Amino acid sequence: MRRTALLTLALVALTAVAAFAETCLSPYVKGLRQPEKVMYVWTLPAREGADYLSVIDVNLASPTYGQVLRKVEVGSSGNEAHHMGFTDDRT
């Protein structure tokens, strides 16, 4: 019972924080006329092998929505690619 109460409290706290999170309002995002169609995700292998960049379909109208469209291996593992981003014009 205590564990459930703690988990519920944590969920409420995280939800409250997320509600006030800053949204990216770069000039590029303000100029978007439609949502992005793909999402790039740095992916680590479950056991062995190279890290890779996954390209995922996020177009709600697409028949392949939610599927990995392409994997691009980077040739090594353990890269910790946590500082990746685009400029405002997505180049």
Keyphrases for this structure?
three-stranded antiparallel sheet, alpha+beta, 91 residues, single chain, 3 strands
- State the share of residues found in helices, binned by percent: 10-25%
**Oligomeric state of shown chains:** single chain
Amino- and carboxy-terminal Cα gap: 51 Å
State mean pLDDT (0 to 100 scale): 78
Task: Spell the H/E element sequence.
Answer: HHEEE
Shape: extended
Strand fraction equals 15-25%
Give the strand order, joined by hyphens, for the main sheet: 1-2-3
**Could you tell me the radius of gyration in angstroms?**
18 Å
List low-confidence stretches. Answer: none
How many discrete structural domains?
1
Structural class by sheet pairing and helices: alpha+beta
**Number of distinct helices:** 2
The biggest sheet amounts to: 3 strands, antiparallel
Total number of β-strand segments? 3
Give structural notes:
There is one protein chain. The chain has 91 residues and is an alpha+beta fold. The chain has one domain (2-73). The chain contains two helices and three strands; from the N terminus they run ααβββ. It has helices spanning 2-19, 27-30; strands spanning 38-43, 52-57, 68-73. It has a three-stranded antiparallel sheet, with no helix packed on it. The protein is extended. The model has no long low-confidence stretch (mean pLDDT 78).
Topology summary:
Blueprint: H1 2-19, H2 27-30, E1 38-43, E2 52-57, E3 68-73
Antiparallel strand pairs: 1-2, 2-3
